[in-house]
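quick one, 363 residues, struct below
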Amino acid sequence: MLNDIRYLVLEDGTVHEGYKLGADAESFGEIVFNTSMTGVQEIITDNSYTNQIITFSYPLVGSAGFNFEDSESLLPTAGGVVVREASEHPSNFRCDENLDQFLKRHGIPGISGVDTRSITKKIRTGGVMKAMITDSSDHDSTVSKIKDSTDATDQVASVSTRTPYISTGRGPRVALLDFGKKENIVRSLNHRGCDVTVLPHDTPAAQILDMKPHGVMLSNGPGNPEDVQVAIETVKGLIGKVPIFGICLGHQLIALAGGARSYKMKFGHRGANHPVKNLLTGKVEITTQNHGYAIDGNSLENTDFEVTHTALNDGSVEGLRHKSAPVFSVQYHPEAAAGPHETSYLYDQFIGLMTTEGGQTNA
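---
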Protein backbone atom coordinates (compact mmCIF):
# COMPACT_ATOMS: atom_id res chain seq x y z
CA MET A 1 0.00 0.00 0.00
CA LEU A 2 1.01 3.58 -0.61
CA ASN A 3 0.53 4.76 2.98
CA ASP A 4 3.57 6.83 3.98
CA ILE A 5 2.54 10.40 4.70
CA ARG A 6 3.54 13.12 2.25
CA TYR A 7 2.47 16.75 1.90
CA LEU A 8 1.58 19.11 -0.92
CA VAL A 9 2.19 22.67 0.24
CA LEU A 10 1.02 25.63 -1.84
CA GLU A 11 2.53 29.10 -1.97
CA ASP A 12 -0.52 30.59 -0.22
CA GLY A 13 0.03 28.32 2.80
CA THR A 14 -2.56 25.67 1.94
CA VAL A 15 -1.43 22.19 3.02
CA HIS A 16 -2.78 18.92 1.62
CA GLU A 17 -1.84 15.73 3.46
CA GLY A 18 -1.67 12.58 1.39
CA TYR A 19 0.44 9.52 0.69
CA LYS A 20 3.87 9.08 -0.78
CA LEU A 21 3.90 8.24 -4.47
CA GLY A 22 6.83 7.84 -6.83
CA ALA A 23 10.39 8.92 -6.08
CA ASP A 24 11.66 9.49 -2.56
CA ALA A 25 12.45 13.16 -3.15
CA GLU A 26 11.17 16.69 -2.68
CA SER A 27 9.82 18.63 -5.63
CA PHE A 28 9.34 22.34 -6.18
CA GLY A 29 7.58 23.92 -9.14
CA GLU A 30 4.56 25.67 -10.56
CA ILE A 31 1.40 23.66 -9.85
CA VAL A 32 -1.01 23.25 -12.78
CA PHE A 33 -3.98 21.02 -13.55
CA ASN A 34 -4.87 18.74 -16.44
CA THR A 35 -8.48 17.67 -17.06
CA SER A 36 -7.77 14.63 -19.24
CA MET A 37 -9.28 11.28 -18.28
CA THR A 38 -6.75 9.21 -20.23
CA GLY A 39 -3.27 9.52 -21.72
CA VAL A 40 -1.49 9.84 -18.39
CA GLN A 41 1.81 8.45 -19.68
CA GLU A 42 1.86 10.83 -22.63
CA ILE A 43 1.01 13.78 -20.38
CA ILE A 44 3.71 13.11 -17.79
CA THR A 45 6.34 12.59 -20.50
CA ASP A 46 5.45 15.80 -22.38
CA ASN A 47 8.43 18.07 -21.77
CA SER A 48 6.21 21.13 -21.92
CA TYR A 49 5.62 20.22 -18.25
CA THR A 50 9.29 20.75 -17.34
CA ASN A 51 9.54 21.60 -13.62
CA GLN A 52 5.75 21.77 -13.25
CA ILE A 53 3.71 19.79 -10.71
CA ILE A 54 0.81 18.20 -12.61
CA THR A 55 -2.52 17.83 -10.81
CA PHE A 56 -4.89 15.36 -12.48
CA SER A 57 -8.49 16.42 -11.89
CA TYR A 58 -9.84 12.99 -12.86
CA PRO A 59 -10.04 10.92 -9.64
CA LEU A 60 -8.46 7.60 -10.71
CA VAL A 61 -5.10 7.83 -12.46
CA GLY A 62 -3.06 5.06 -14.09
CA SER A 63 -5.71 2.36 -14.50
CA ALA A 64 -4.30 1.38 -17.92
CA GLY A 65 -0.74 1.31 -16.61
CA PHE A 66 2.47 2.37 -18.34
CA ASN A 67 4.52 0.73 -21.08
CA PHE A 68 7.91 1.22 -22.70
CA GLU A 69 6.56 2.48 -26.04
CA ASP A 70 4.12 5.36 -25.58
CA SER A 71 6.25 7.99 -23.84
CA GLU A 72 6.56 11.37 -25.55
CA SER A 73 10.14 11.77 -24.28
CA LEU A 74 12.75 9.30 -23.04
CA LEU A 75 13.56 11.39 -19.97
CA PRO A 76 10.43 13.12 -18.61
CA THR A 77 11.09 16.38 -16.79
CA ALA A 78 7.83 17.01 -14.94
CA GLY A 79 8.42 18.30 -11.43
CA GLY A 80 5.80 16.14 -9.73
CA VAL A 81 2.42 14.43 -9.97
CA VAL A 82 -0.68 14.92 -7.78
CA VAL A 83 -3.57 12.42 -7.90
CA ARG A 84 -6.67 11.55 -5.92
CA GLU A 85 -6.13 7.82 -6.31
CA ALA A 86 -3.23 6.01 -7.97
CA SER A 87 -4.14 2.68 -9.53
CA GLU A 88 -1.88 0.05 -7.97
CA HIS A 89 -3.09 -2.82 -10.16
CA PRO A 90 -3.64 -1.50 -13.70
CA SER A 91 -5.34 -3.67 -16.29
CA ASN A 92 -4.10 -3.52 -19.87
CA PHE A 93 -2.40 -6.12 -22.05
CA ARG A 94 0.39 -3.62 -22.89
CA CYS A 95 1.04 -2.62 -19.29
CA ASP A 96 4.63 -2.97 -17.99
CA GLU A 97 4.39 -1.03 -14.71
CA ASN A 98 2.04 1.05 -12.58
CA LEU A 99 2.12 4.78 -11.87
CA ASP A 100 4.20 4.47 -8.70
CA GLN A 101 6.81 2.30 -10.45
CA PHE A 102 6.95 4.59 -13.46
CA LEU A 103 7.49 7.70 -11.35
CA LYS A 104 10.17 5.99 -9.26
CA ARG A 105 12.03 4.85 -12.37
CA HIS A 106 12.14 8.43 -13.64
CA GLY A 107 12.88 10.07 -10.29
CA ILE A 108 9.61 12.02 -10.18
CA PRO A 109 7.94 12.47 -6.77
CA GLY A 110 4.18 12.41 -6.41
CA ILE A 111 1.40 12.44 -3.86
CA SER A 112 -1.91 10.56 -3.77
CA GLY A 113 -4.96 10.69 -1.55
CA VAL A 114 -5.59 14.42 -1.86
CA ASP A 115 -8.66 16.28 -3.11
CA THR A 116 -7.46 17.13 -6.60
CA ARG A 117 -10.70 18.79 -7.60
CA SER A 118 -10.46 21.31 -4.76
CA ILE A 119 -6.87 22.01 -5.87
CA THR A 120 -8.11 22.46 -9.43
CA LYS A 121 -10.79 24.90 -8.27
CA LYS A 122 -8.22 26.88 -6.28
CA ILE A 123 -5.93 27.18 -9.30
CA ARG A 124 -8.86 28.06 -11.56
CA THR A 125 -9.98 30.80 -9.16
CA GLY A 126 -6.65 32.17 -7.96
CA GLY A 127 -4.35 31.22 -10.81
CA VAL A 128 -1.28 29.02 -10.97
CA MET A 129 1.14 29.29 -8.07
CA LYS A 130 4.30 27.73 -6.74
CA ALA A 131 4.09 24.55 -4.69
CA MET A 132 6.20 21.82 -3.13
CA ILE A 133 5.79 18.09 -2.63
CA THR A 134 7.60 17.20 0.58
CA ASP A 135 7.79 14.69 3.42
CA SER A 136 8.55 17.46 5.94
CA SER A 137 5.84 18.38 8.44
CA ASP A 138 7.42 21.79 9.07
CA HIS A 139 4.96 23.60 6.85
CA ASP A 140 6.02 27.14 7.80
CA SER A 141 9.55 26.36 6.69
CA THR A 142 8.27 24.83 3.46
CA VAL A 143 6.16 27.91 2.66
CA SER A 144 9.22 30.12 3.26
CA LYS A 145 11.26 27.98 0.85
CA ILE A 146 8.54 28.29 -1.77
CA LYS A 147 8.28 32.07 -1.44
CA ASP A 148 12.06 32.51 -1.52
CA SER A 149 12.47 30.39 -4.64
CA THR A 150 13.04 31.78 -8.12
CA ASP A 151 11.39 30.73 -11.35
CA ALA A 152 13.22 28.23 -13.54
CA THR A 153 15.10 29.61 -16.55
CA ASP A 154 16.65 28.08 -19.68
CA GLN A 155 14.05 25.33 -19.63
CA VAL A 156 14.08 24.90 -23.40
CA ALA A 157 17.86 24.45 -23.41
CA SER A 158 17.53 21.70 -20.81
CA VAL A 159 15.15 19.58 -22.90
CA SER A 160 16.25 20.30 -26.48
CA THR A 161 18.46 17.85 -28.32
CA ARG A 162 22.12 18.85 -28.19
CA THR A 163 23.05 17.32 -31.53
CA PRO A 164 21.09 16.97 -34.78
CA TYR A 165 19.71 13.57 -35.74
CA ILE A 166 17.60 12.18 -38.57
CA SER A 167 14.36 10.19 -38.58
CA THR A 168 14.42 8.89 -42.12
CA GLY A 169 11.69 9.17 -44.72
CA ARG A 170 11.44 9.37 -48.52
CA GLY A 171 9.26 12.45 -48.81
CA PRO A 172 9.73 16.16 -48.10
CA ARG A 173 12.70 17.15 -45.95
CA VAL A 174 11.61 18.77 -42.70
CA ALA A 175 13.90 20.62 -40.29
CA LEU A 176 12.31 20.25 -36.85
CA LEU A 177 13.53 22.75 -34.26
CA ASP A 178 13.36 20.95 -30.94
CA PHE A 179 12.20 23.09 -28.01
CA GLY A 180 11.08 20.02 -26.04
CA LYS A 181 9.25 18.17 -28.80
CA LYS A 182 6.75 15.39 -28.33
CA GLU A 183 7.78 12.22 -30.14
CA ASN A 184 4.42 12.03 -31.86
CA ILE A 185 5.34 15.13 -33.88
CA VAL A 186 8.14 13.12 -35.48
CA ARG A 187 5.87 10.10 -35.86
CA SER A 188 3.17 12.22 -37.52
CA LEU A 189 5.67 13.58 -40.04
CA ASN A 190 7.26 10.18 -40.69
CA HIS A 191 3.81 8.65 -41.16
CA ARG A 192 3.34 11.09 -44.04
CA GLY A 193 6.69 10.10 -45.53
CA CYS A 194 8.71 13.11 -44.36
CA ASP A 195 12.45 12.90 -43.84
CA VAL A 196 12.89 14.68 -40.50
CA THR A 197 16.08 16.25 -39.17
CA VAL A 198 15.70 17.18 -35.50
CA LEU A 199 17.78 20.24 -34.63
CA PRO A 200 18.89 21.95 -31.39
CA HIS A 201 16.74 24.89 -30.34
CA ASP A 202 19.51 27.42 -30.99
CA THR A 203 20.29 26.40 -34.58
CA PRO A 204 20.64 29.66 -36.58
CA ALA A 205 18.51 30.41 -39.63
CA ALA A 206 21.46 30.40 -42.04
CA GLN A 207 22.44 26.88 -41.00
CA ILE A 208 18.87 25.67 -41.42
CA LEU A 209 18.56 27.22 -44.88
CA ASP A 210 21.89 25.69 -45.91
CA MET A 211 20.27 22.28 -45.34
CA LYS A 212 17.73 23.18 -48.05
CA PRO A 213 14.71 21.76 -46.23
CA HIS A 214 11.32 21.77 -47.91
CA GLY A 215 9.84 23.06 -44.65
CA VAL A 216 10.64 23.98 -41.06
CA MET A 217 8.61 22.88 -38.06
CA LEU A 218 8.77 24.54 -34.64
CA SER A 219 7.90 22.18 -31.79
CA ASN A 220 6.19 22.56 -28.45
CA GLY A 221 8.24 23.23 -25.34
CA PRO A 222 8.22 24.59 -21.79
CA GLY A 223 8.26 28.04 -20.27
CA ASN A 224 7.93 31.64 -21.35
CA PRO A 225 8.41 32.16 -25.11
CA GLU A 226 10.10 35.50 -24.46
CA ASP A 227 12.94 33.61 -22.77
CA VAL A 228 13.87 31.94 -26.07
CA GLN A 229 15.18 35.04 -27.85
CA VAL A 230 17.65 33.04 -29.93
CA ALA A 231 14.76 31.12 -31.50
CA ILE A 232 12.77 34.29 -32.15
CA GLU A 233 15.70 35.65 -34.15
CA THR A 234 15.94 32.35 -36.03
CA VAL A 235 12.26 32.51 -36.99
CA LYS A 236 12.69 36.09 -38.21
CA GLY A 237 15.39 34.83 -40.55
CA LEU A 238 13.19 32.02 -41.88
CA ILE A 239 9.87 33.77 -42.55
CA GLY A 240 9.34 34.21 -46.27
CA LYS A 241 12.16 31.84 -47.22
CA VAL A 242 10.68 28.44 -46.40
CA PRO A 243 7.28 27.03 -45.32
CA ILE A 244 6.94 27.05 -41.52
CA PHE A 245 4.52 25.24 -39.20
CA GLY A 246 4.54 26.00 -35.47
CA ILE A 247 2.90 24.12 -32.62
CA CYS A 248 2.33 25.41 -29.06
CA LEU A 249 5.59 27.17 -28.08
CA GLY A 250 6.50 27.18 -31.76
CA HIS A 251 3.26 29.05 -32.46
CA GLN A 252 4.15 31.66 -29.85
CA LEU A 253 7.66 32.10 -31.22
CA ILE A 254 6.29 32.73 -34.72
CA ALA A 255 3.95 35.41 -33.34
CA LEU A 256 6.73 37.09 -31.36
CA ALA A 257 9.00 37.04 -34.41
CA GLY A 258 6.21 38.82 -36.28
CA GLY A 259 5.97 41.60 -33.71
CA ALA A 260 3.14 40.34 -31.49
CA ARG A 261 3.20 40.02 -27.69
CA SER A 262 2.62 37.07 -25.38
CA TYR A 263 1.17 36.98 -21.87
CA LYS A 264 0.96 34.51 -19.02
CA MET A 265 -2.51 33.03 -18.60
CA LYS A 266 -4.27 32.79 -15.26
CA PHE A 267 -4.30 28.99 -15.27
CA GLY A 268 -3.65 27.97 -18.85
CA HIS A 269 -5.21 25.30 -21.03
CA ARG A 270 -4.26 21.71 -20.20
CA GLY A 271 -6.45 18.83 -21.27
CA ALA A 272 -7.74 16.78 -24.20
CA ASN A 273 -11.18 18.31 -24.66
CA HIS A 274 -10.67 22.00 -25.46
CA PRO A 275 -13.07 23.35 -28.12
CA VAL A 276 -11.52 25.61 -30.77
CA LYS A 277 -13.31 27.43 -33.59
CA ASN A 278 -11.67 27.35 -37.00
CA LEU A 279 -12.47 30.83 -38.33
CA LEU A 280 -11.65 29.77 -41.89
CA THR A 281 -14.28 27.01 -41.99
CA GLY A 282 -16.62 27.97 -39.15
CA LYS A 283 -16.25 24.48 -37.69
CA VAL A 284 -15.57 23.64 -34.04
CA GLU A 285 -12.70 21.25 -33.37
CA ILE A 286 -11.90 19.44 -30.11
CA THR A 287 -8.21 19.74 -29.33
CA THR A 288 -5.45 18.63 -26.97
CA GLN A 289 -3.78 21.57 -25.26
CA ASN A 290 -0.95 22.21 -22.82
CA HIS A 291 0.13 25.82 -22.46
CA GLY A 292 0.35 28.53 -19.81
CA TYR A 293 1.15 31.39 -22.19
CA ALA A 294 -0.85 32.80 -25.09
CA ILE A 295 -0.62 35.47 -27.77
CA ASP A 296 -2.28 38.84 -27.20
CA GLY A 297 -4.79 39.16 -30.02
CA ASN A 298 -4.72 42.97 -29.92
CA SER A 299 -0.97 42.95 -30.52
CA LEU A 300 -1.49 41.30 -33.92
CA GLU A 301 -3.28 44.31 -35.43
CA ASN A 302 -0.24 45.89 -37.06
CA THR A 303 1.54 42.67 -37.98
CA ASP A 304 1.55 40.46 -41.07
CA PHE A 305 -0.41 37.76 -39.24
CA GLU A 306 -4.11 37.05 -38.95
CA VAL A 307 -6.00 34.90 -36.46
CA THR A 308 -7.34 31.61 -37.85
CA HIS A 309 -8.49 29.84 -34.67
CA THR A 310 -9.88 30.94 -31.31
CA ALA A 311 -10.67 29.13 -28.07
CA LEU A 312 -14.40 28.88 -27.39
CA ASN A 313 -13.92 28.83 -23.61
CA ASP A 314 -12.13 32.17 -23.28
CA GLY A 315 -11.70 33.66 -26.77
CA SER A 316 -7.90 33.42 -26.72
CA VAL A 317 -5.84 33.08 -29.91
CA GLU A 318 -5.40 29.44 -30.99
CA GLY A 319 -4.10 29.76 -34.53
CA LEU A 320 -2.37 32.18 -36.91
CA ARG A 321 -1.29 32.45 -40.52
CA HIS A 322 0.94 34.89 -42.34
CA LYS A 323 -0.86 37.13 -44.82
CA SER A 324 1.59 36.49 -47.66
CA ALA A 325 4.27 33.96 -46.65
CA PRO A 326 3.71 30.17 -46.26
CA VAL A 327 3.69 30.31 -42.45
CA PHE A 328 0.99 29.09 -40.06
CA SER A 329 0.73 27.92 -36.48
CA VAL A 330 -1.62 26.60 -33.82
CA GLN A 331 -1.51 26.83 -30.04
CA TYR A 332 -2.85 23.29 -29.57
CA HIS A 333 -1.42 19.85 -30.43
CA PRO A 334 -2.70 18.39 -33.72
CA GLU A 335 -0.53 15.30 -33.12
CA ALA A 336 -2.60 14.68 -29.94
CA ALA A 337 -0.87 11.95 -27.88
CA ALA A 338 -3.02 11.81 -25.96
CA GLY A 339 -6.29 13.19 -27.26
CA PRO A 340 -8.51 13.59 -30.33
CA HIS A 341 -7.08 13.43 -33.84
CA GLU A 342 -9.56 15.64 -35.69
CA THR A 343 -6.97 18.39 -36.29
CA SER A 344 -4.28 16.09 -37.67
CA TYR A 345 -5.18 17.46 -41.12
CA LEU A 346 -2.85 20.36 -40.27
CA TYR A 347 0.10 18.07 -40.96
CA ASP A 348 -1.35 17.41 -44.41
CA GLN A 349 -1.74 21.16 -44.86
CA PHE A 350 1.95 21.55 -44.04
CA ILE A 351 2.83 18.83 -46.57
CA GLY A 352 0.82 20.72 -49.16
CA LEU A 353 2.67 23.95 -48.44
CA MET A 354 6.02 22.21 -48.77
CA THR A 355 4.95 20.70 -52.08
CA THR A 356 3.84 24.01 -53.58
CA GLU A 357 6.11 26.51 -51.81
CA GLY A 358 9.17 24.59 -50.67
CA GLY A 359 9.71 21.78 -53.12
CA GLN A 360 10.69 23.85 -56.14
CA THR A 361 13.36 25.97 -54.43
CA ASN A 362 14.91 23.20 -52.36
CA ALA A 363 14.54 20.12 -54.54
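The domain at 155-358 is CATH 3.40.50.880 (Rossmann fold).
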